[in-house]
Amino acid sequence: MGLEAVYFIGAFVLLTALIYGTLSYRYRNRAATRAGDEIVKQRYRENQG
């Protein structure tokens, strides 16, 4: 009985992580992502020169 519980809990945690990852990717804040990309590009240009 104990081993089945471990498998069940592991499958539940994996399913929860998969659902969370899918939803967070789908509903991410695109403005924040663009702002972060701009900051990275600016820092990269500053380090090049």
Helix content: over 70%
**Tally of extended strands?**
0
Mean residue pLDDT: 90
First-to-last CA distance? 64 Å
Give the uncertain stretches in residue-range form: none
Biggest sheet record: none
Give the overall shape: elongated
Order of helices and strands: HH
Q: What is the gyration radius calculated from CA atoms?
A: 20 Å
Quickly count the helices: 2
User: What is the beta-strand fraction?
Assistant: under 5%
Instruction: Return the structural class.
Output: mainly alpha
Folded structure, characterized:
- The structure is a single chain.
- The chain is mainly alpha-helical and 49 residues long.
- It has a domain at 22-49.
- The protein is 90% helix and 0% strand.
- The protein has helices at residues 2-26, 30-48.
- The mean pLDDT is 90.
Essential attributes:
single chain, 49 residues, mainly alpha
Briefly characterize the structure.
The protein is mainly alpha-helical and 49 residues long.
Q: How does the SSE layout of this entry go?
A:
Blueprint: H1 2-26, H2 30-48
